[in-house]
Amino acid sequence: MKNTHRYIILIVLFAIFSGCKTIFKTSKSFKLIFEDTNNFWKMYDKVKLIENDENRIEIIENDYLKKANLGLKLLIKKDKLTAISYSKQLKDTLFYNSIRQTTINIQSDSVKIRNYTSQFEKLYPQAVFSDIHFVVGQFKHGGTVIKGNTIIEIQKNAKTETTKSEFLRLDNLIDYNSFISLIIHEQVHINQKKGIRFYLSNNLLTNTLSEGSADFIMFLITKQLPSYIRKTYVYGNEHEYELWLKFKKDLKNDYKKIRNDWLYNPNRKDIPPDLGYFIGFKICEKYYNESSDKIKAIEFILNGNNYSKMIEKSHYNGGK
Question: 130 and 208 share a domain?
């Protein structure tokens, strides 16, 4: 327990001295914040009845964007969200009407979310958590971490069998049944020592193991993969060894030239997206299974200081 407290203190001190105001919390003390979602629906009930663009934009600005809580404020800045772009998006009333009840149901899932974060704490006693902000964004993220805050675009995680849309590709949305797994994935990033800034790395190994380890620990806790990435794992299991050979080769290549083969590539048509997640998962899984001390194994995976050593110790060889 003393070590856990010491670890939390170090993270908080790091946040303070790095100019970040985020204070990380325990599985019992972090907050689930839905104010931005609730403000959105109040605004939507006004906008959906209005055709005049100027009036729509004014309502969106005053009733949603100007009332933004921290999560939405961070997303507005990151994604350059505007009332004009929201006004166009909200013309798809078929979509928003079809997901409204699901976004309300998500607010009832708070107990499930806390149960899973508690399991994370048991798996890794040093685990810390950020507040989770549920907002209605513009479909650029399922979930993301900004300045140590987990932000979930609730409308992108609300797909069910009754979801309909005039404009959207529904296969780009995340099933409601998968959104808790996504939350755990993002909370794993909070606990990676390089997690807050890993995406700035121009390094295939770092990014692959950062994402793959988040998926692996998420899977240990939830026992499921989110629906949006299952095809990637099916394909990966069928082509594991050839993917491993290509991955080893690409470690020596310019990351910018090969990134689109592995990560953040939803527009690829010839292969499933994010095969780097799969390779990273498999390396972490092999390392974890080979380790006798599972808690220390998780700590090493999250530490992220020597991913090359992890591959060496895991004896991973593409499933062979």
Answer: no
